[in-house]
From TrEMBL:
Protein name (Swiss-Prot/TrEMBL): Small EDRK-rich factor-like N-terminal domain-containing protein
Region (Disordered): 1-66
Domain of life assignment: Eukaryota
Small EDRK-rich factor-like N-terminal domain span: 1-42
Family: Belongs to the SERF family.
Species whose genome carries this gene: Leptotrombidium deliense
Ranges of compositional bias, category Basic and acidic residues: 1-57
GO CC term, one of those recorded: cytosol
Length: 66
């Protein structure tokens, strides 16, 4: 028995896998993160989350008018 078909299928699978990995960008490669260190990104993201939480708390404080 020849194994040509198995090899060809394995090649196709590997090629598909490598193409998918090339499409995915790491956090450092994304436009919003270029030139930023991990600590700088964490600080920025934490600040965004604080703002979101503050906004959510303000929404909770408003009396609902039904």
């Amino acid at each position: 028995m020849t194994r040509g078909n198995q090899r060809e299928l394995a090649r196709q699978k590997n090629q598909k896998k490598t193409l998918e990995q090339q499409k995915k960008k790491g956090a450092n490669e994304k436009d919003a993160n270029k030139g930023m260190s991990l600590e700088e990104r964490r600080h920025r993201d934490a600040e965004v989350m604080r703002m979101k939480q503050e906004k959510a708390n303000q929404q909770k404080q408003k009396p609902s008018s039904h």
